Amino acid sequence: MNQFKWIINFWRPYKLKALLIMALTFAYGGFAICYPLIFKYIIDGLNTDFNAGGITKFVLILFASGALMALTYINLQRNRLVMNLTLERDIRNKTFDLLTRFGTSFYQKFGTGDIVTRLMDELEQLCHLSSSGIFRLVQVWLTIIFTICVLMALNVKLTLLSTLPLILVFAFYIVCDHDFFAKNRAMRDAVSAVNDAIETCFSGIQVVKSYCTEDYQRKYFDRVMEKRRDSELVLLALEQKMEFIYGFMSQVGMFVIVFYGGLMVLNNEITLGSFVAFSNYIMVLAGPLMELGWFLTSFRKGFVTIDRLMEIENEKPAVAKCANPIEPALAPGSNMPLIKLCGASFSYGDDFALKQISFEISRGEKIAIAGSFGSGKSTLLKLMMRFFDVDSGAIEFFGENIINLNLKSVRDKIGYVPQDCYLFSDTIMENIAFGRSHSETELACALETAQLNDTITTFRRGLNEEIGIRGLSLSGGQKQRVSIARALLKSPEILLLDDATSSLDNKTEDLFWDKLEANYGKVSVIFASHRLNTIKRADRVLVLSEGKLAEGGTFEELMQNSEIFKKLIQSEKNNQ
Ligand SMILES: Nc1ncnc2c1ncn2[C@@H]1O[C@H](COP(=O)(O)OP(=O)(O)OP(=O)(O)O)[C@@H](O)[C@H]1O
Ligand SMILES: [Mg+2]
User: Fold this and answer.
1) Which residue from 348, 498, 503, 543 has its CB within 8 A of the most atoms of ligand 1, so it is best to mutate?
2) 512/463 Cα distance (integer angstroms)
3) Nearest-atom index, ligand 1, CA of 544
4) For residue 62, is pLDDT > 90?
């Protein structure tokens, strides 16, 4: 079973712990089994020639085994619980790590609410099953097998009759299994849909409010909740049916003992002590039988969770990891281009977003990427960040194909400001530093260049001002400047700005470019923009048109020779 293998993989680092828990499980199971046997010997002894000394000896044995049993149980339970929490940590960490490796296509397929459901709600139950569940199941099986062996030793015929319900329980489980799995899966998917609806509605609450679509959202939420309720009710009905049958079957054994066992005592086929032992053992068996039913259904539920996690694991990461990555570096004095694109083509689906793009960028150059809406500017910058791999052609950094380079080191050298500059619900300082260490001079330099100093002084807590969910309390221009400061604080060798100054006024933008030149003169800057004021700052302009590189040259050259560029600039002027 794939699901069992999946759990066992998480147990690999804890082999000794598993052995200890297994030993404690066996010890506890053994004690629990011996207990009713001691009673049998006392009763049979009382019926014959027992004396006070004999009773005292049995009481002492009873006391000692009871104390040992309690001690074993406490240790067993503690170890099982520790492992529940340890596995929960490991499984969540592994899944989280996996999730951070996927590209945007993965997040287009799986909604945030769905991912949170898989990572949080369902995992808790699964982790309980992966440790406590497994060992309690072992304990249940041990009790059942031990009990049946002891019963066999006492009387074979009565044992076979009284354990018949066990076989029926299994037959019933096998009949219901497929249905149970399917209904469980439907219920989990419905829960994910509800969480997705919550996430989508509240992360876009401003849009919801501005379009007055609260009613539509409420109705949509009502529909997904109705679906969730229906699927839970269907599952509940099946669970109740299964529980009833399991409970009933465990009682049937007792009826058999009282009826046949009673007749056998009357016919002197078994002793009264054996009859009492049988009754006690059937009581002992009733608990595990009920539990077995619960375990079978719980494991089925756990398997659905594992299935949903394996679905995530089986997704292919957006970019393949290189087995022997090379560290990106350009030899001092080398005149090799810093970045080189050789016939790079890329498509998100059927249509090409970029076709046969070739150009070179030297160290310290400032390159503008111009083009109309949807021409592929952002896609080009994302390819340079290696969020995706090109379909054909190659992208080279420092003279080496990016697919052979250590991706972390490449990204470390790049300061990237995305078009939808994302901020986290934290302080301005945390959003800029983003967990990286930096000196005071580096921070001052980044703040000065990003034109943030004046803004910071307007906040009561300065850099420690909380900026609300996704920077709700900042203006568009402030958000862009915080994102730029974040990229600059990395002291990057390459700066990729995706329309990152679109919300700045011309004066602030000019100040930004001047300070960038003064403080980060050696940094190569590649920036996508529509704005005339921004494009003019470039040493060279590359013009994209419908995913193709249409033109390239200085601003003046293009204004003289390129019709596409002139049209683009004219439409930009008309928009101003
Ligand atoms: N994640 C995606 N999945 C599918 N298609 C996409 C995706 N992102 C972009 N595209 C498509 O790729 C093409 C290029 O998009 P891109 O965002 O690179 O354009 P752009 O030049 O940056 O546009 P803008 O000026 O509006 O920012 C567009 O046709 C767009 O619809
Ligand atoms: Mg764009």
Assistant:
1) 348
2) 19
3) 21
4) no
- Angstrom distance (rounded) from CA 302 to CA 296: 10
> For 410-464, what is each residue's pLDDT tens digit?
998 999 999 988 888 788 898 898 877 888 899 999 999 999 988 888 888 888 8
Which residue pairs from 320-326 have beta carbons closer than 8 angstroms and sit at least 24 positions apart in sequence? 320/389, 320/403, 321/407, 322/403, 322/404, 322/405, 322/406, 322/407, 325/404, 325/405, 325/406, 325/407, 325/409, 326/400, 326/404, 326/405, 326/406
| Confidence (pTM) | 0.69
**What tokens does 427 get?**
């302080």
In this structure, the residue with its CA closest to atom 4 of ligand 1 is 348
Helices (H), 129-155: 134-154
Q: Which range, 29-33, 298-302, 460-464, is most confident?
A: 460-464
Cα(429) to centroid(ligand 2), Å: 27
CA distance linking residue 480 with residue 327, whole number of Å: 31
Q: Which residues contact 408 (CB under 8 A, 6 or more apart)?
A: none
Residue 495 and residue 385: Cα distance in Å, rounded? 11
Show Cβ contacts of residue 369 under 8 Å, excluding neighbours closer than 6 positions: 377, 380, 381, 526, 527, 528, 529, 541, 542, 544
Residues around ligand 2, an ion, CB closer than 5 A: 377-378, 419
Ligand 1 centroid from CA 354, angstroms = 10
Which pLDDT value is given to residue 332? Answer: 66
